[in-house]
Design a protein that fits this description.
The protein contains eight helices and five strands, in the order βαβαααβαβααβα. The chain has a five-stranded parallel sheet, sandwiched between helices. It is globular, with a radius of gyration of 16 Å. The two termini are about 25 Å apart. It binds 2'-deoxyadenosine-5'-diphosphate and magnesium ion. The site of magnesium ion has 5 residues, from helix 1.
């Protein structure tokens, strides 16, 4: 039942590919005990399971495109419910990727209290992803797919930030800085929530 998570603290973590979302989420989990749900990780786990759904997803992700909304949202919701009894809050990482995804999330789950906008320059993101690609084994960490993911980010995801800015819940985080300095800014935003 979704009732269990209705009053949970929800934080959307939005930023381009390679901006440092996962890196910051890991640090938030360690300090605040939040549950980190990366939509990409959930999808990659489904691919790794070898299911039919996973095979369809893999083909889409390899092209750098967005997977169907209902699939991602159902996976996030199931994962949230599974952690409802132990979670101090939820970090929703890499979702919403487009405004429609945010609207559906709010209809089916609840409203975010905060949106962390992890902001880095395009060239920084490309550099970090190329480096990550040396060891990540991710099918989408290659030059051609990176370019498509960045284009899609600017087109579909930046409007998400504008959408939530109207509500005053966006905190822009300069992710060009070293990891610990970025986290110092993140901490301030999370502490404001209490
Ligand atoms: N502030 C920072 N300074 C330098 N490198 C960073 C950084 N934040 C993250 N990185 C590195 C770690 C990864 O190898 C790569 C991408 O980070 P990530 O957390 O996996 O990004 P995302 O989850 O947004 O795709 O960049
Ligand atoms: Mg990530």
């Amino acid at each position: 039942m979704a009732d269990k998570i209705k009053n949970a603290k929800i934080v959307f973590v939005v930023g381009g590919p390679g901006s440092g979302k996962g890196t910051q989420c890991e640090k938030i989990v360690a300090k605040y005990g939040y549950t980190h749900l990366s939509s990409g990780d959930l999808l990659r786990a489904e691919v790794a399971s070898g299911s039919d759904r996973g095979k369809t997803l893999q083909a889409i992700m390899q092209k750098g495109e967005l997977v169907p909304l209902d699939t991602v949202l159902d996976m996030i919701k199931d994962a949230m419910i599974a952690k409802a009894d132990v979670s101090k809050g939820y970090l929703i990482d890499g979702y919403p990727r487009e405004v429609k995804q945010g609207e559906e999330f709010e209809k089916k789950i609840g409203a975010p209290a905060l949106l962390l906008y992890i902001d880095a320059k395009g060239e920084t993101m490309v550099k970090r992803l190329m480096k990550r690609g040396e060891t990540s084994g991710r099918a989408d960490d290659n030059e051609e797919t990176i370019k498509k993911r960045l284009d899609l980010y600017y087109k579909a995801t930046e409007p998400v930030i504008a959408f939530y800015e109207q509500r005053g819940i966006v905190r822009k985080i300069n992710s060009e800085l070293p990891v610990d300095e970025v986290f110092a800014i993140v901490e301030k935003a999370i502490d404001e929530l209490k």
